[in-house]
Amino acid sequence: MSPEGHDTRRKILAADDEEISQMLEEAWCLFSIVRPELAFRCGPLAEWLNEEPRSAIKTAAAAETARAAVKAGLMELTRDRSEAQEVDVLAHCNLLLRNAEAPGTRCQHYSPAPVAEALASIALEVPEQEQSICDSFAGTGGMLRAAASELRKAGKNPHDFGGTAATLIRLSSRPSPSMFTYGTLGRASCSAAPTASKSRIGRSEPLRNREAVEMQEAIATGAVLFAAAQSAERGKA
Amino acid sequence: MSFRFRQADVIKVAKAAVNAWSRMAISEADSGEGLGVVAALLLLGRHEP
């Protein structure tokens, strides 16, 4: 484990409940600043941190969860950046937290990393620059993670590719953790659809995927224009 | 590190986190927030998520 990992482990284990909440809040704030296009989808994961007053029971539960995860070895698994890309802790948390009926009623099945990587290697046999990758039924983003891994193996930079994923969520309930995983691809976007009848899902998903791609392209275009304007300003000065 | 060994470690961490959350959280509707805690832990200390 890196010295930084030891430091984070020590800090969490020494902190009280409120201090741990503060750390979680800061982590989400940083994520919102760095990845605003993903952060708005992750809002429900961290909304309770903005509540006034903050829920005491959730603060205590979050602190207990953080301590338990750290004691069980989370930092040893994920503090190394390159190794962390191979570790899908959120997928297993999601599997454990989901409703027991989810596989049957919502067709939620987890693709283990080796399976996802095998599929990605087939789909990306000859990756082309500016190609977009769409996982139309993303759960934890494992397919996009595998795609990024395969691109790296092929000597490509995942940041040169667009990643798109659509996910199904239950309204007013648990959001998918997949948005978090999309950090593995540089330009990523996602769409979320509430669960509905199979026919409705069949009709709406292609549309939602298209919307997600359009949104991602609009953000990328805006960023390019902004960078060009800044560059021109610097040239004048 | 072999895949099986790593998977066992990952599952151990996930079980520890989920057990701790489930012991204290209010209902299934809060499980997304439980995931949020683990997600934030993964972000801690990183300058670029």
Notable characteristics:
heterodimer, A: 237 residues, mainly alpha, Rossmann fold, 2 domains, three-stranded parallel sheet, 12 helices, B: 49 residues, 71% helix, 0% strand, globular
How would you describe what is shown here?
The complex is a heterodimer of chains A (237) and B (49). Chain A is mainly alpha-helical. In chain A, helix 11 (178-181) links the parallel strand 2 (162-169) and strand 3. In chain A, strands 1-2-3 form a three-stranded parallel β-sheet, sandwiched between helices. Chain A has twelve helices and three strands. Chain A folds into two domains: 1-87; 100-237, Rossmann fold (3-Layer(aba) Sandwich), CATH 3.40.50. Chain B is mainly α. Chain B has one domain. Chain B is built from two helices and no strands. The longest helix of chain B is centred in the first third of the chain and has 22 residues, at 3-24. The chains are: A mainly alpha (237), B mainly alpha (49).
What is the overall number of helices of chain A?
12
Structural class of chain B: mainly alpha
Weakly predicted, low-confidence segments of chain B:
none
**Estimated share of beta-strand residues of chain B:** under 5%
Measured as a percent range, the helix fraction of chain A is 55-70%
Count the DSSP helices of chain B. 2
User: Mean pLDDT of chain B, as a whole number?
Assistant: 77
Note the run of SSEs of chain B as H and E: HH
Give the radius of gyration of chain B: 13 Å
What's the number of extended β-strand segments of chain A?
3
Q: Work out the helicity level of chain B.
A: over 70%
**What is the number of domains of chain A?**
2
State the end-to-end CA separation of chain A. Answer: 46 Å
Mean pLDDT of chain A: 72
Anisotropy-based shape of chain B: globular
How are the SSEs ordered, and which strands pair?
The complex is a heterodimer of chains A (237) and B (49).
Chain A: H1 3-14, H2 17-34, H3 36-46, H4 56-71, H5 74-78, H6 81-84, H7 89-97, H8 102-105, H9 113-123, E1 132-135, H10 142-153, E2 162-169, H11 178-181, E3 187-194, H12 198-236
Parallel strand pairs in A: 1-2, 2-3
Helix pairs in contact in A: 2-3, 2-4, 9-10
Chain B: H1 3-24, H2 31-43
